[in-house]
């Protein structure tokens, strides 16, 4: 038992302003899930919260 089959790590799908792919590891490797890293997930959540604040008045 020398090798362990590690599941392929999913890479974050977000890109920066230059179009470079984010090197972060996706939180969920499931191809059906949204593949974003922890940082980008937090950014998206902040964006949603901010959007709700502006629209719910
Ligand atoms: Zn990312």
Percent in helix: 25-40%
How many individual helices?
Answer: 1
Q: From the alpha carbons, calculate the radius of gyration and give it in angstroms.
A: 16 Å
The geometry reads as elongated
Largest sheet: none
* Helix and strand run: H
Domain count, please report it. 1
**Hetero compounds:** zinc ion
Poorly predicted runs = none
Q: What is the mean predicted local confidence, pLDDT?
A: 89
Alpha carbon gap, first and last residue: 61 Å
Short account of what is shown:
With 57 residues, the chain is mostly helical. It has one domain (10-57).
Explain what this protein looks like in three dimensions.
- With 57 residues, the chain is mostly helical.
- The chain has one helix and no strands.
- It has one helix at residues 38-55.
- Bound molecules: zinc ion.
- Zinc ion (ZN) is lined by residues 12, 14, 22, 24, 36-37, 39-40.
- Residues 12, 14, 22, 24, 36-37, 39-40 line the site of zinc ion.
Features:
57 residues; 0% strand; binds zinc ion
List the helices and strands and how they pair.
Layout: H1 38-55
This protein binds zinc ion.
């Amino acid at each position: 038992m020398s090798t362990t089959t590690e599941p392929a790590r999913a890479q974050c799908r977000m890109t920066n302003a230059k179009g470079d792919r984010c090197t972060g590891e996706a939180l969920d490797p499931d191809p059906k899930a949204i593949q974003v890293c922890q940082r980008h997930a937090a950014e998206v959540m902040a964006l949603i919260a901010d959007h709700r604040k502006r629209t719910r008045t």
